[in-house]
Amino acid sequence: MGFLNAYRVPLLIAFVCFLVTVNTIVLVAVIRRATARLVRRTGTRGKDDARGVAAHEQLVRRARTASTVAVNIVIWTQVAIAVMVILGLLGVNLTALLASAGVLAAVLTFGAQNVIKDVMAGLFMVFEDQLDVGDLVDAGMATGVVESVGIRVTQVRDLTGMLWSIRNGEIVRIGNGTRSWRRVVLDIPLTPDTEISLATKIVTSAIVDTLAQQLPSDTPSASPECVGVVAFDGSAVTVRFTAEVPATDLYRLDVALRTAARQAIIDDPALTLAIPLRVASTV
C-alpha cells in the first residue's frame, strides 16, 4: 500500500495515457471499418455503366477524405481530454483554468492566427467538397495527387514523387482535375500546303476510333471537334483538335489520341507532319 500511495499520481497518469491510447485506437479502427463498409455496400450497386463507376470512384475518394478528417478530430480530441485529466491529477485548479479560458482564448487567438486560419480553411475545403483524397489538383504551390487532407495540412504528391505538405490557409485557389470531364487538346503541325479539310477528316476519324476502343460504349462524351488553324508560319500550319474525355482517363487518353493521330497522318500519303523552323542565333 505504501508503494501505491507513493506512486499514486504517476500510476494514474500512466493509466490515463493507456486508456486514452486504447480508446483512440478503437475509435480510429471503428471509423476506418465503417468507411470501408460504406464503400463496399455502395460498390455492389450502381456500377453497371460508366456513370455508376465514376460515381463510385468519387464516393470512394470522398469517404477516404472524410475518414482522414474524422481520424484527426478524434486524435486531437483524445489528446485534449488526456491533458485535462492529467492536469487535474497534478493538482491544477481546472475551475480557475476554465474561468480564465476567455483570456487564454484571446491570447491563443492572437498568437495562433495562422493555425486557426489553417483549421478553418481545411474544414471549409472538406465540407464544400473542393477536393478529396486521390484527386489530381493544382493547389498553386504544388500540382499532383492528394494523399491526405488534414485539419491543418494537405499533402500533395507531384509527378516526380515529391510529397508537398501545404498549410490549408495558404491555399487560395484549387484546380481539381478529377471531376467530371477534361479536354484533350491536340495541336498538330502540318506542312503549309496541307488540305485542311482532308486533315480534319482523317485525324477526327482516328480520334473517334481510338475513343471507341479505349472507353466503354456507355461512356458519356462529346464528339471530337476540329477547332481549325490556330497558328501559321512559313514552315507549318498548326491545326487544333479537341476531345472531351472522363477526367480520370485524361493522361492515358491524351497519349493514346496523340499516338493515333500521328499514325493516321503517317499512313496517309497526302499528309505530312511539319518540321519546326529553327532560327540560328549568333552571339
TrEMBL record:
Gene3D superfamilies: 1.10.287.1260, 2.30.30.60, 3.30.70.100. It comes from the Bacteria. Residues 79-113 form the Mechanosensitive ion channel transmembrane helices 2/3 domain. Residues 114-176 form the Mechanosensitive ion channel MscS domain. It is a multi-pass membrane protein. One of its GO terms (molecular function) is mechanosensitive monoatomic ion channel activity. Keywords: Cell membrane, Membrane, Transmembrane, Transmembrane helix. It is found in: Cell membrane. GO terms for cellular component: plasma membrane. The chain crosses the membrane at residues 12-31, 69-90, 96-116. Belongs to the MscS (TC 1.A.23) family. This is Small conductance mechanosensitive channel. It comes from Compostimonas suwonensis.
